[in-house]
């Protein structure tokens, strides 16, 4: 069978500057893995656009297709006439873009600003009492505390530790999911962890800090790695293949939570619930996203992704604001 297709050495080139036959073949491969594809025509060439969440699966699917059909590589020569060595396989660890970095830096600056202003105004202890995670008050209906507690820290050491973790994990997550969706996942995981912890404690239990959100971020990345090890095919019939190695990220994530939950004054249960919330929320979010993409036309996907990301950014910002001003 002829596909008029050449093997590429990066996902970017595999989706760019294609003729109609190559675009049809590439899109068919991606759609067989339940990956939505948007078409963009420019200068007589077709560019295929996919969600950043699907990039790893797309690259793996295309490489399998190249190998199974003995499709030869394109080019293969340097400008000076020497043979070009093909780059290695695409890493399972996501690349970090400037939007992800900027979003993580913004979140960290917010935490630092709140801590600094509270110390300057000499109301730090008052804020901890009125906005910290207290099971007693949360169970009486003050649910805003599950969000505001994530923004408060006991001291500089507590703040710096959580900020460093958020810079690293937040940059990755906001690069994978987009700035708005990434922030939403991190904060919602932390808030859900605090809520579950309050229901478990059911007593006068006061805690603060973004560490629950940090553990939620670990859960998000764990779920992302597990998701990449689950292959689904929808043609000719639906099939799901789960690699045994899918359990490895779960073990690694749990080990990280245990490693960073052994310090003094550490709320271990909040860390554990944050981690579990991150996993569950990420899978629910991924499922909802896939269902939404199925009901969208190809040409609307790339535009809608931008609007959806902005929507979740606004939801996160408004939720934090409302939680802070209400009790």
Automatic annotation (TrEMBL):
Intracellular or extracellular location(s): Membrane
Record GO terms (molecular function): serine-type endopeptidase activity
Transmembrane feature ranges: 102-121, 159-176, 206-224, 245-262, 268-287, 307-325
A Gene Ontology biological process term: proteolysis
Keyword Transmembrane helix in annotation: yes
Pfam families recorded: Rhomboid (PF01694)
Entry keywords, A to Z: Hydrolase, Membrane, Protease, Transmembrane, Transmembrane helix
GO CC, one annotated term: membrane
PANTHER family: PRESENILIN-ASSOCIATED RHOMBOID-LIKE PROTEIN, MITOCHONDRIAL, RHOMBOID PROTEASE
Protein name: Membrane associated serine protease, rhomboid family
């Amino acid at each position: 069978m002829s596909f008029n297709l050449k093997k590429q050495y990066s996902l970017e080139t595999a989706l760019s500057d294609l003729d109609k036959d190559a675009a049809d073949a590439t899109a068919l491969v991606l759609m067989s893995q339940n990956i939505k594809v948007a078409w963009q025509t420019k200068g007589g060439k077709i560019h295929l656009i996919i969600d950043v969440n699907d990039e790893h699966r797309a690259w793996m699917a295309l490489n399998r297709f190249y190998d199974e059909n003995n499709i030869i590589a394109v080019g293969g020569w340097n400008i000076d006439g020497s043979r070009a060595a093909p780059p290695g396989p695409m890493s399972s660890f996501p690349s970090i873009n400037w939007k992800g970095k900027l979003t993580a830096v913004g979140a960290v600056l917010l935490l630092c600003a709140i801590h600094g202003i509270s110390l300057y105004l000499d109301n730090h202890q008052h804020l901890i009492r009125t906005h910290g995670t207290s099971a007693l008050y949360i169970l009486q209906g003050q649910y805003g505390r599950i969000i505001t507690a994530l923004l408060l820290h006991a001291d500089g050491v507590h703040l710096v530790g959580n900020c460093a973790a958020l810079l690293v994990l937040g940059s990755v997550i906001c690069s994978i999911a987009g700035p708005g969706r990434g922030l939403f996942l991190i904060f919602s995981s932390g808030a859900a962890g605090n809520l579950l912890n309050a229901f478990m404690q059911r007593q006068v239990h006061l805690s603060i800090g973004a560490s629950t959100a940090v553990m939620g971020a670990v859960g998000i990345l764990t779920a992302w790695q597990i998701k990449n090890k689950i292959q689904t095919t929808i043609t000719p019939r639906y099939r799901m293949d789960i690699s045994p190695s899918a359990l490895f990220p779960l073990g690694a994530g749990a080990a990280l939570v245990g490693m960073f939950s052994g310090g003094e004054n550490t709320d271990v249960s909040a860390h554990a619930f944050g981690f579990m919330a991150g996993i569950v929320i990420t899978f629910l979010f991924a499922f909802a996203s896939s269902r939404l993409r199925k009901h969208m036309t190809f040409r609307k996907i790339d535009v809608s992704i931008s609007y959806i990301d902005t929507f979740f950014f606004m939801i996160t910002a408004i939720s934090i604001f409302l939680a802070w001003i209400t009790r």
